[in-house]
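Assemble and predict.
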Amino acid sequence: MTVEVTRKVSFGGRLLVRLAGFACLTLDSMPLQAQETAEYFKRNCANCHTIGGGRLVGPDLKNVGQRKDKEWLTRFLLNPKAVMDSGDAYAGRLFQDSRGVLMPTAPDISAERADNLLVLIEAESKLERSQFAGALTAIPDRPFTEQEMEHGRLLFVGLKPLANGGAACLSCHSVQGASILGGGQLGPDLTAVWNKLQGRKGLAAWLSSPPTPTMQPVYKNHPLDSQEILELVAYLESAKDERETSSVARFNFFLLGLAGTAGGFVLFDFVWRRRFRAVRRDLVHAGEESEDT
Amino acid sequence: MNVRSQIAMVFHLDKCIGCHTCSIACKNVWTDRKGTEYMWWNNVETKPGTGFPTQWENQDKYNGGWVTFQEKLELRSTSKTKTVFNIFHNPHQPSMDDYYEPWTYDYQHLFNAPEGNDQPTAIPLSLVTGKPMETIEAGPNWDDDLGGSPVYAANDPNLKNLPEDQRDQLFAIERLVYFYFPRICNHCLNPSCVAACPSGALYKRGEDGIVLVDQQRCRAWRACVAACPYKKVFYNWFTGKSEKCILCFPRLETGQAPACFHSCVGRIRYLGVLLYDAERIEEVAKRPDIELIDAHRAMILDPHDPEVIAAARTNGISDGVIESAQKSPVYQFVKVWKLALPPHIEYRTLPMLFYVPPLSPVMARRDGDTVDHVSDNLFHDIDESRVPMQFLANLFGAGHEGKVRYALAKQKAVRLYRRAVTVGDITMAMAERALREADCTVDEAEEIYRLTSLCTFDDRFVIPPAQREQAIEMMKDPHEHRQGAGFGFLTGPRRGL
């Protein structure tokens, strides 16, 4: 008797929990998705774009839906390079405005996500002050100190390690005057990056979450902290007027490599100097010499 | 006991007349192809002399063979670590000059030369470059019959440890002496060439111990060339593969003696099966120099011993092979009579080609105008031999004279005995005393005499049945195989282009 009662009670309890869970799911689903999209925007878009905060590297996205129709925007979001390559005039203008920085294709972008992003931008545009109105990292407008610039240089060349264990910039990039041997050749020369990314704000936004497919996986788990961003921006700003690595320097580097190779060969030649040993000729020469004496 | 069979060889140096017929037979059969011109799988050297390639016995230069290092056997030339560091350059290779630059002659020039004041000559042409050669500096037997001995014979590595006076006497004109030393691959029990190959291209055939290079697997590392202390693996510069003596296995498999054996004018070559205990190879190869010859002999098993026969059968050695081993002339020379000795066993490859050391001519002395024998006895004391005992010991005794002296004394005693029998100017009592001193009986002396002097083709070459049909049977019906093969193709011809 008692057993049966408990079973009934427990059955009814489970049903209740299920119903409640279903209700929650349907009720919370919209805000959940919006939250996820906002998070995505923060990680992948906010480093170049604001909504109502003026342009960084890319244009301010406030009311972007009024500038271009949804179909074009979706197409551009899905593959900026393809639109650019198709000779689209508007895309060409955007490219010029951002001084030759092409928008990278955002990771995991899909038609659905593009839709969500456009919805998010539209919603945020209507607000008095959007949560994306300012840059992610606040950079002061005051002139940088000598110390900040020097710290930035040390961070750049890797003499001072990055707090979260990221790879030093020098691994892939070079800046004129950063170190004697220049720097990495994998990524672009960063001497003029300050100009290219249109100043402090753009640069800081970029550094707070590098969006390119190459850099993103490298720094995803090792983000820079705000102090490091400040110092790197200070350094890159101080370097902005240097000339980019000239062809003479590149040629010197090539010559250095050539000399190193030659030196290596000389070293090998010395280490393995016994590799050619004539046996018979030596005997004949020794025989001739003893005959002469 | 892990009994295996090996086709082994004996060369009786006292019978070699240095005619090079063996070399020519081998050359014509195997190494007349492009890229092999310089190779001599079989060559005949004059001793003292530097041989082919020049000074091959000088392992300080060529780094062949094994050494014992901290209770372990190690190759002198290479190791896993050394292979990594020498990946772009394999050191210790003999250069072309150490062999010789092979050449031919422009015979057409004898007929086509324009008229001139001099007779036309056949200009030597390099077989490597095809261009005329200004001077021919060396050949495969450049020091034949002591040619150029101040350079070559004087630098024989076997002259080491010889007292200065013995060394000088060796080159005094009245006592000038040399003997021939024909060489082929020793088909060693512990082959360093096989051990050195990074590609695993070299292998020792299970059924008869012939060491071969798999031409498909060879990757031209040439580690085998450096590792072989006898310098009997050669690099074919045209095919980019290493090659070596194959003991004419296609001939052996059809019951014929190898070409060099078959053609030997002096009948110095013997061939037969030896059964040996493969379990003991490493242990034997690690012994100190002085024990090597005895240990090597002890590894060779008595084919009449029922225990050995049973163990051989469990290892799949057929009765035909065991029977062949029981008749093996090599077993007699090496194990029973102890006349034949391995060359340079101190390289620790445990060669399976044995040499009966030569009794050299009588010592002579010049006294005014007369040349006199030092010894009153025609069969001189072996220690008064013109070839110093130490020299032979360096070649065949790992530097120790004991085994060489034993073999020479026995040979001398057999000669004395036969002299007593046939000529009679030596008393039988004296001959028998000599036999006793040489650890030999009358019966044994008769047998040695028969196998040395009266040996027939079948006495010298006891070739085991190769039983290829059994090998074929494992893959294919032998009758079917017989109908589909044997037309000179490795893969049969097909209709069409």
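The CA atoms of residues 84 and 91 of chain A lie 6 Å apart.
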